[in-house]
Amino acid sequence: MLTSECSLNSITVRGADFNDVVRLARSHGFGGVSLWRDLLDGVDLATAAGKIAAAGLCVTSVCRGGMFPQPDDAARRARRDDNRLAVDQAHALEAECLVLVCGPMGADPAGARRQIRDGIADLIPYARQAGVKLAIEPFHPMMAASRSAVTSLSEANDLIDALADPILGIALDAYHVWWDVNVEHQIERAGPRLFSVQIGDWLTPVTSELGARGMPGEGCIDLSAFIATARRAGYRGLVEVEVLSDRWSAQPADVAADAAVAGIAAV
Amino acid sequence: MLTSECSLNSITVRGADFNDVVRLARSHGFGGVSLWRDLLDGVDLATAAGKIAAAGLCVTSVCRGGMFPQPDDAARRARRDDNRLAVDQAHALEAECLVLVCGPMGADPAGARRQIRDGIADLIPYARQAGVKLAIEPFHPMMAASRSAVTSLSEANDLIDALADPILGIALDAYHVWWDVNVEHQIERAGPRLFSVQIGDWLTPVTSELGARGMPGEGCIDLSAFIATARRAGYRGLVEVEVLSDRWSAQPADVAADAAVAGIAAV
Question: Chain B: nearest CA to A243, how far in angstroms?
């Protein structure tokens, strides 16, 4: 794969600030960036959008909204406000989508799933008005207790069927779904709903829940086949390289970016 | 739940040898034991079976056979020999089943799944002759790369449908399947195929692939509901407490057994 077909996710070069991420993406030949919201604290979004455009980059996604299950109405209102702010940020940056990390199962999985569906339904009109697409990210079951009750692409597809709005689609990360016996079929089913495709590699044994990923090619996922399946399903966008890695984070951001480029070349 | 309705899995009191496990199970009021095979090295099985019977215990399972995907014919033959030895051990101990940990996905998931199906089919006649039931254990997707390409109860049920032999059933561990949106339905589907039901709790964040489990009640799984579902599906056997925990393993085996009993009481 060419680096220009890829987008640099800011977490892959953790430690880099907004300006660093844009500089690294440009210098390394990426076609775009994906931005975690912590990077946007204190950044003027109009200025940021200008810098990104001047660097010839697009914004493939903003990460993240979601976390819909909340213990009470006050917490749900606060979360709704934050999700609307995330939509505004994605709009200001002309991001191709806002990624939704839907929120954990908690003690009541069925209730959590209901709050997720209701929360997305509530956010859709606001996102539509802003022209921001919402991308549900199915998460690896390893993170069901901490991040997302949506643990498979099949569930994300079902949720989108149920809510039936073209503004709603999927952020598909190979790291989260590669193990699933139904993943190829579900990628075909997702088709034009694929708003974002992300790669990172699976290293075993797992040493931490959030920081154990590998650069493309370091692990066991057949990323070439994965991307080919997404392309066959109709995905035309950039492929995000999103690698949460304690190991790579301990390196300078330039070194991590070099490694991402080397990994992409091997896919 | 009563401790007498439960079986003490030897890994829950890691560090204990065969005699210790039997002593701890008896002194703590368990109805049975489940034995990992490393515990049987150098143990005369007829003598062992006598000690277990004298303690008033049954053997709910022997752990484990499986690991069917292998790189070449020689490795597959060696694995077949080892699996037959595991059947012999389960027979000698009058275990209710031999647990099958089917083996990892590797670089070729479809090939691994084929080898798993063929390997089980090859083992069935030998197990039938020995009167040993084989229990496929679906594993958490976190271990797809290292332990098992069978990552859901649904897949295990499908595999049993395909092989269609009453000697073949399921070892169902809450830790591996709790996150699955379809788990209740699939437990009902499994019904009389449930040869073993195991519990351990999910702690987050995950700090290691194999040793991050909690005693019942320490984590987020609704184990009461899980066991109730298995009972409704017809499971009448003892519930194994199988907790692979680096934290509890650092404690004396007696302390871990006490904690298991306290956890059971809370379910």
Answer: 17
